[in-house]
Amino acid sequence: MSGGRGVDGVGGGSAVAVAGRSLEALGRARELAAYQDEPRQMRSAVVGKSGALRLGFERRGLRTALVTMERQVPLLVQRPLYWDRSLPGMACVPIIHTSGSVVGGDRFRVRIDVAAGAQAHVTTQAATKIHEMDANYAAQLQDVSLDHGAYLEYLPGVTIPHRHARYLTDTRVTVPDDATMLLSEIVMPGRKHHGDGELFQYDVFSSTVSAVRPDGRSLFTEKILIEPAIRSVRRPGAMGGYAVFGTVLVMTGRDHATAILERTQPVFDLGEVVSGASRLPNDAGVVFRVLGMESAPVRRHIREFWGVVRQQVLGVSVPDAFLWQ
User: Fold this and answer.
1) Partner of 26 at 20 to 30 A CA spacing, among 32, 61, 272, 286?
2) DSSP state of 157
């Protein structure tokens, strides 16, 4: 795991253009320097490989409405659903990838705005599969903004990087101290049962998350950079003998963060999963980590932690898991 992982307190528009933040700038990251060649099939960022979403949620009576929905293939959303019985007014929106997977040269931009008092749950229709690449890379730029009293759960499915995949994502969150956002990421080691297995055979997985207050004050920046061919992820202090890595960042007020930490006990089961939580810098909230041998226990522990956050912040439980989860 080159570059390490950690959270520090250093400083850190629309889905199409954000001042000082662009997909072109992301492409100049050091870890992508060796992958600037163009695919032979379709050049990077052309129509069909340059997706964009802009979602805006506002409170309308007893419900949160999706009042802004701009989309560009291969990213797609449809009308919001209201399937959560604990929060019948919460807008639930799955992001759909119409091409079914991420390939070399893909460039995606996502912006989510949640207005004051609104509640939204954003997920993905399925796992995010990063296909094998023989040229270039794929990147996704995300900007999320919450207003006062807003609540957002951004809980995508697992990410599965295939052999020689190169994938970079950068997320910036603007959140006041009286709003709450959950942001999760579960990274698989690859296609475990494909051929002889593809455990940690991808080239680059790079994920950056930063958070700021509405006045621009920086809260934290975290970057996870995994380059298995350069530095083994099996060493102590990284993955060790585990295969699946999960993170939940909870950006919330100090009182909520304290209560969440008190209710979250570390787990140390060498045969299945280890997990724990700690504070984010600058009273930004809580970070929860979990390592597992398989995806099921990792997802289960993240779901339990999600339930702790919901009970603390909203006083309700998480919905029952779907049968396919």
Assistant:
1) 286
2) -
Q: Identify whether the C-beta of residue 122 lies closer than 8 Å to the C-beta of residue 66.
A: no
Alpha helices for 77-192 (secondary structure H) = none
Pair 318, 303: CB distance under 8 Å: yes
Give the domain ranges of the chain.
7-35+44-240
257 token code pair:
């963060």
In angstroms, rounded to a whole number, what is the distance separating the alpha carbons of residues 143 and 147?
A: 14
- Give 18's DSSP letter: B
Q: Report whether pLDDT(325) > 70.
A: no
pLDDT digits (tens, 9 = 90+) for 49-74: 999 999 999 999 999 999 999 999 99
3-state SS of 33-71 is CCCCCCCCCCCCCCCCCEEEEEEEEEEECCEEEEEEEEE
Judged on CB neighbours under 10 Å (0-12, 13-18, 19+), 184 is buried
In 3D space, the residue among 112, 144, 110 whose CA is nearest the CA of residue 128 turns out to be 110
- Long-range contact list for 191-194, CB < 8 A, 24+ apart? 191/160, 191/162, 191/163, 192/243, 194/162
Residue type, 126: A
pTM over the 0.70 mark: yes
Helix, strand, or coil (residue 172): strand
pLDDT range class, residue 10, cuts 50, 70, 90: very low
At how many degrees (to 10) do helices 295-313 and 254-262 cross?
130
Q: Which two tokens stand for residue 106?
A: 């893909």
Q: What is the pLDDT of residues 213-237, one digit of tens each?
A: 999 999 999 999 999 999 999 888 8
- In the block, which residue shows the tokens 């528009």? 13
